[in-house]
C-alpha cells in the first residue's frame, strides 16, 4: 500500500512552496498548506476557506463600459502550523531534517522534523494532522515534541499568525495576491470590502515543560473556522477514525489501479486525493483553480470545474458533482444581470471569480471566453446522462434555458449558418476571433439541450424551435483544401510561430511576448479544436489530421493541454504519445512540470489525468447515451482497473494488455 | 472684418468650460484657458506648457508583457486669470454680465465682465490679454477695473493659483486627469516623477485703490514660464505690436476666404487660429489632441498631427511643419526601443504620449494602431513633395527606413501577398483585425518610400529590394461579389449593428456598450477605408460603392470622421452631403457638436476642416507629384479663395460657382 503514501522523495523539487502545496490538506471548506512548524521567510504558509474572499476595485489604465468592477481574492488567513519553541532562551530555528508522509488512503498527514538552536540543542517535532471531512470546520493536530540531546525547560506556544499577502510586482497574470482588510471583533473576522464573516475557535498551548533528554510531550490542538458562531465539541481520536472511514468510502469508488508504473499510480492517486479535498460541498462554493492549496489565480473558479473536474465527480462522486452544479444554479441571477449589462439576452456566467460576478480584468482572455456558458450546460447534461438524476435537471433547467437565450442573442444567422463572433476559445494564445470551433460546438450543444428540455417540460415552444434551428445551422469552419477543422475563421491564415527561433527560457510565451505578437501567429497555448473533438468525436481520420496539424503548434503552456492531447492520441492508436502526454499530466505537480506548483496544485490538470485514463486509455465514449469503452492501454501499463457509477450502479472495469492484444 | 472676431454669440452653448476652451490662447509653448476673473467651482481654468507632463505608473487589472508602463499627463499649472477684489470687506463674486471678443486677426482677446458684491456694488473688469508669439515664455495681460456704482477703497490682488486635477471617477476614456506632484523651489517647479522643470517669473499686484464712482484703474501683468531660468525684459505695448505683425504674416498665407456663409467663414478661421496657436515650435514638442486648450486625452500627441494637422502646415506654414516632424525624428531612438521590446525590427512610434514612449493603457485601441508608423512616413513624404526640402528628408531618412523595417518584420508573405495581421485601423469600433485596408496602404507607401530613399542615397540595397517587394505584393482585401473594398479580412462577415434599435442617447457607443458588443458588429466610429481612398484615390465608381456601403455604418463618434467623408462626397459630386459634412466639421466646437468641447478644442477636426476645403471643395489631388485642383464648390458657397506654398512659392487659388458651372 505504499503507493498510497506521498513522501518528500516523490517530489523532484523539494522547495518549500511546492511541498506546502502538494502536502496541503483540505476538506472542501478549509485548506491548510503544509508549511514548516517554525516560521521562516522563505516559507509561504496559508490557510483558506472556500468562498471567503476580499474584494478590491479593479483599476484600469483605461476603463470602458461593462468592464468587471471588482477583484475578488481568496483570503490567506492564518498560519495554523507554527509553534514557538525555546529552551534557555534559545529558539529552535535551524531545520536539520524533515520527513513527510501523506497518507492519502486515510486523509492524514504524518510529519517529523528535527530542529536545532544556534548552540546545538535538538528537538524532534512530530505532527499528525488533518482537515476533518466529518467536521469540516476543524483542522486537527496532534503534536509530539521530543528533546533529542538536551534536558531543560522547554517553552511551547501555539500561535495562529494572521497572514498578510505578499507584495507582487511581477506581471505574471497567474498569481495575484491582495491584502485582505480584515476586521477582528471577538472571535469574528470580517472582510472590510466584501463584508463576509467567519467565526473562529482556536485551542492553544502556552506552557513550559521540564524535559529530560529523550523525553517527549504530546498535545492535541484544534483550529476551527465556521460561517456560524457555533462549534460542536470534537474529539481528536473520533475525528481521526471518521476521517479514515470517509476516505475508505471515497477510494472504494474513486480509486484507479494501475499496474506497471508506481510513480504513475501514486501520481494519479495524489490527483484524486486533491480533487476530493478541495471541492466545495455546500452548493454555494465551488472548486478554485488551485483548490484550497494556494493563492494562485486568486482562488477563482473557472470553466476548469465543468470541463476538467466534473467528469471525475459525475462518474464517481455524483453528490459532490451535484453540489458543484448547484453553485452555478445559485449564481444564475448574477449571470442574468451580467448578460443584460452587456446588452444580450439570457445569462452569461463569469469567466472567473468567486461570488458569481465577473472579475476578469482583461476581457479578451476573460469575458470573451463565452464558452463558459456552453461548458456549464455541458456539465449539467453529462450529469444527467450519467446519474439519471432528472429531478435535479428539472430544478436547474433555467440555467440551460438562459444560457441558450444568451447564444441566441449573441450569435446571428448569415448565409453560412448560425455564427458566433468576437469570442476567445480555450486557446488563450488567440483572442477575439470569429466562429471558434470549440465555442460553436459547445453553443450548439447548449442550444440543442435547451430545446430538448423545453420539449420535455412542454414549455417555450417558439423559443425552443429557434434554439433548435440555431443548433442545426451552427457554422463550423472547415478548410476544404487542407482538410482541416478551422479553429476559427482566421486561424489558418496566420503566420506560423517561429518555434526554432524561440529559446526554451522564453516559455511560457505569455511571460515573454506581447499579446499582439502571440495572437498574430499560429501558436496555441492549449487544446482547443482537439478538446472539441474529445467531447464530440468526428471521424478518426479527421481527428488525426487535426492532431497532426495543431499539436506541433501547441506549446502546452497551459496545464489544461496535455491530458486532452493524450486522449486524442489514444484514440488514434498512438500509444507512445498518449502515454507520454498522460504521464506528464499525471505527475505534473510532483515534478513541478509547470514550474509554479508552489502557487497551488493544478486542479484541472489533475482532473485531466482522470480524463486521460478513462476517456483515453479506457476509451470512454457514449453510444446512444450509454458509456462504452475501448481498450487503448499503452504497452507500459499492464493493467488498469477502475469503477464508475452509472445511474446509481457502481461498475468495475478492468483493462489488460492481454485483452488488448487479442 | 467682423468675421475675424469670435464672440460669445457665436457659441451655441455658453457653458464656461466651452468658453474657456474656444477663447483659449496659446503660442505653441504655453496655453491659457479663458476662465473667469473670479474663481468659482463650476469653472475649469487651466494653463499648460507644451511637453510638460507628469508621469504615473499605469496600474493594470491584469498586467502582461510589453504593456505601456507609465501614464503621461500634461500638467494643469496655474489659474493666471483670477483676481481677488473686495470693497468694504465684500467680495465681487456675482457675475452680472460678460462680453468676449477674440480678435483672431491680431491674436488678442478682449473681455469685459461686470461683477457685483452681495450688497450690490458693481465693478467692470476689462481684460486685454495674449500669449505672446514673439516671446513664447510670456502671457501678457492688461487689466482695467472701474467702479460702476460705488466709491470706496478697492483691494486688488493678482494670484496665480496652482491648480490641482479634478478627480474623475467616470470611465470616459477621452478624459483623464491626474494630479501632478509638483515640487516648488524658489521660482523653479519640478514634477516629482517625470523630473521636468520649469522656471517662473510672475509679476503681481497687491494694492488698495481709493476709487470714486465711474473711476477706473489699470495695470499690466505678466505671467512667464520657461524651461530656462532666464527671462528677457518685456514691454506690453511692444509685445502687442509684435503679436499683430506675426498674426498678419500668418493670415497672409493661411487665411481662407469663403463667401456666402459668415458662420462657416468664422468657423474655419477659428480652426486655423487654434492650429497656429497650439503647434509646438521647438522640435521637441508636438501638438496635443486638444492643443494647449484643455486636459482632454491628457495632452497627448497622436497620429492626428501627421494625418489631420500637418497637411495644413505643410501647405501654408512649412516651418511649423518641419518643427513637428523634427519631434518624430528626435524620438526615433525611443521608437526603436519599443519595437525591440515587442520583438520586432526597426522602430515603432507610440500610439499616444508626450515623451516618445508608448503610454496607451489599452493596447487593442493603442499599440495595435500600428498605422501610426505609416502615418508618420506619409507626413514626411508629403512635406518633401510640397516643400521640396530634400535636405531635411536626408537628415530624417532613418525615420523612414526604421519604420519600413518594422513593417517588414511585422508583416509576412503568404500566398495572398504581403499580409499584416492583428492591427487596429483608424476605426476604433473594430480592433485586432487582419489586413486592415488603411494600414496596409500606409505600410505599402512607407515601404516604397523607404526603398525610394535608399535608392536615392545609394544604400541598403538588399533591404530596399525587400521593402519594394513587400510594397508591390501588399495584400489589399476586396470582395469580388459585392465589389467592395474590405476594411479588413472579416469586416463584411460581421452582423450589422442594430441602428434602428439604438436610442440617440446611447451615442457615442463607446460609452454605452462593451467593446466586444461593438467590435463584433459592422459599425464604424470614423472614416477608415474612406480615409485611405482620400489619400490614395481608386476609381470613382469604387469610391462611390465604398462610400455608400461604409458611411451608413459610421456613427461619426470620432471628431476625425466627418471631414473625410465630406472630401469623398465632394469627389463624388454629392455637393449637398459634402457641404453638410464640411459644415459639421468646420463649426464642430462652436456648436459643441461632440458634446465635450470643454475638454479642449478638437484639433484634428479643425485640421480636417482645412482638408475639407482644400482636398474637398477645391479637389486637391496630386498628378505626377504636383498638386492639381478640381472645383467641387457646393452651391451655398459663392466663392472660396486660399493660398498654398509649393516649393517656396505662394500661389493663390480662387474658386467660384460661375467657374464651376461653366
Largest protein-protein interface: A-B, 50 and 50 residues
By oligomeric state, this entry counts as: homodimer
Major β-sheet of chain A, in short?
9 strands, antiparallel
Structural class designation of chain A: alpha+beta
Low-pLDDT sequence parts of chain A:
none
Distance between the termini of chain A: 31 Å
| β-strand amount of chain A | 15-25%
Largest sheet: spatial strand order of chain A: 1-10-11-12-13-20-18-17-16
| Overall form of chain A | globular
Number of strands of chain A: 31
What Rg of chain A is obtained from the alpha carbons, in whole angstroms?
25 Å
Helix content of chain A: 25-40%
Count of DSSP helices of chain A?
Answer: 17
Q: Report the mean per-residue pLDDT of chain A as an integer.
A: 95
Briefly summarize what is shown.
The structure is a homodimer of 662-residue chains. Chain A is an alpha+beta fold.
Amino acid at each position: 500500500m505504499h503507493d498510497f503514501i506521498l513522501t518528500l522523495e516523490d517530489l523532484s523539487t523539494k522547495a518549500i512552496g511546492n511541498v506546502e502545496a502538494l502536502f496541503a490538506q483540505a476538506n472542501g471548506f478549509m485548506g491548510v498548506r503544509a508549511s514548516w512548524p517554525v516560521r521562516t521567510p522563505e516559507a509561504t504558509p496559508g490557510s483558506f476557506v472556500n468562498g471567503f474572499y476580499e474584494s478590491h476595485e479593479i483599476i484600469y489604465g483605461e476603463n470602458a463600459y461593462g468592464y468587471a468592477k471588482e477583484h475578488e481574492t481568496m483570503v490567506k488567513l492564518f498560519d495554523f502550523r507554527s509553534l514557538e519553541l525555546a529552551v534557555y532562551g534559545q529558539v529552535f530555528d535551524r531545520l536539520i531534517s524533515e520527513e513527510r508522509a501523506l497518507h492519502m488512503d486515510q486523509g492524514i498527514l504524518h510529519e517529523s522534523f528535527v530542529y536545532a538552536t544556534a548552540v546545538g540543542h535538538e528537538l524532534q517535532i512530530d505532527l499528525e494532522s488533518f482537515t476533518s471531512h466529518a467536521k469540516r470546520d476543524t483542522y486537527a493536530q496532534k503534536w509530539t515534541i521530543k528533546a533529542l540531546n538536551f534536558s531543560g525547560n522547554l517553552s511551547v506556544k501555539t500561535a495562529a499568525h494572521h497572514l498578510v499577502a505578499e507584495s507582487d510586482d511581477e506581471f505574471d497574470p497567474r498569481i495575484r495576491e491582495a491584502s485582505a482588510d480584515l476586521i477582528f471583533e471577538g472571535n469574528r473576522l470580517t472582510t472590510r470590502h466584501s463584508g463576509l464573516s467567519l467565526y473562529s475557535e482556536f485551542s492553544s498551548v502556552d506552557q513550559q515543560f521540564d524535559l529530560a533528554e529523550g523525553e517527549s510531550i504530546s498535545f492535541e490542538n484544534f483550529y476551527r473556522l465556521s460561517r456560524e458562531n457555533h462549534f460542536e465539541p470534537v474529539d481528536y481520536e473520533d475525528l481521526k477514525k471518521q476521517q479514515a472511514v470517509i476516505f475508505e468510502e471515497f477510494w472504494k469508488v474513486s480509486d484507479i489501479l494501475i499496474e506497471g508504473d508506481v510513480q504513475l499510480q501514486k501520481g494519479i492517486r495524489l490527483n484524486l486525493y486533491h480533487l476530493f479535498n478541495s471541492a466545495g460541498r455546500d452548493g454555494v462554493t465551488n472548486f478554485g483553480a488551485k483548490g484550497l492549496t494556494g493563492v494562485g489565480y486568486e482562488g477563482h473558479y473557472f470553466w476548469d470545474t465543468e470541463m476538467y473536474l466534473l467528469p471525475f465527480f459525475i462518474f464517481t462522486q455524483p453528490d459532490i458533482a451535484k453540489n458543484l452544479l448547484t453553485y452555478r444554479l445559485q449564481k444564475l441571477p448574477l449571470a442574468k444581470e451580467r448578460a443584460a449589462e452587456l446588452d444580450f439576452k439570457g445569462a452569461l456566467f463569469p469567466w472567473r471569480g468567486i461570488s458569481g460576478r465577473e472579475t476578469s480584468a482583461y476581457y479578451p482572455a476573460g469575458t470573451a471566453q463565452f464558452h463558459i456558458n456552453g461548458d456549464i450546460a455541458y456539465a449539467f447534461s453529462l450529469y444527467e446522462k450519467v446519474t439519471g438524476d432528472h429531478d435535479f435537471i428539472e430544478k436547474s433547467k433555467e440555467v440551460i434555458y438562459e444560457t441558450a437565450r444568451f447564444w441566441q442573442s449573441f450569435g446571428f444567422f448569415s448565409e453560412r449558418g448560425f455564427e458566433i463572433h468576437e469570442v476567445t476559445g480555450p486557446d488563450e494564445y488567440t483572442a477575439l476571433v470569429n466562429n471558434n470551433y470549440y465555442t460553436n460546438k459547445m453553443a450548439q450543444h447548449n442550444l440543442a439541450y435547451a430545446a430538448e428540455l423545453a420539449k420535455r417540460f412542454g414549455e417555450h415552444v417558439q423559443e425552443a424551435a429557434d434554439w433548435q434551428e440555431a443548433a442545426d445551422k451552427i457554422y463550423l469552419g472547415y478548410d476544404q483544401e487542407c482538410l482541416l477543422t478551422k479553429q476559427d475563421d482566421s486561424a489558418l491564415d496566420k503566420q506560423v510561430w517561429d518555434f526554432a527561433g524561440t529559446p526554451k527560457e522564453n516559455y511560457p510565451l505569455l511571460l515573454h511576448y506581447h499579446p499582439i505578437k502571440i495572437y498574430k501567429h499560429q501558436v496555441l497555448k492549449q487544446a482547443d479544436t482537439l478538446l472539441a473533438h474529445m467531447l464530440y468525436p468526428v471521424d478518426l481520420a479527421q481527428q488525426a489530421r487535426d492532431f497532426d496539424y495543431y499539436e506541433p503548434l501547441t506549446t502546452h503552456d497551459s496545464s489544461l493541454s496535455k491530458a486532452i492531447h493524450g486522449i486524442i492520441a489514444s484514440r488514434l492508436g498512438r500509444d507512445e504519445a498518449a502515454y507520454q502526454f498522460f504521464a506528464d499530466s499525471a505527475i505534473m505537480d510532483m515534478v513541478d512540470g509547470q514550474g509554479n506548483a508552489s502557487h497551488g496544485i493544478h486542479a484541472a490538470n489533475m482532473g485531466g489525468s482522470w480524463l486521460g485514463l478513462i476517456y483515453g486509455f479506457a476509451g470512454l465514449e457514449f453510444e446512444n447515451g450509454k458509456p462504452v469503452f475501448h481498450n487503448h492501454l499503452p504497452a507500459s501499463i499492464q493493467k488498469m482497473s477502475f469503477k464508475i457509477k452509472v445511474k446509481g450502479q457502481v461498475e468495475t472495469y478492468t483493462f489488460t494488455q492481454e485483452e488488448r492484444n487479442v
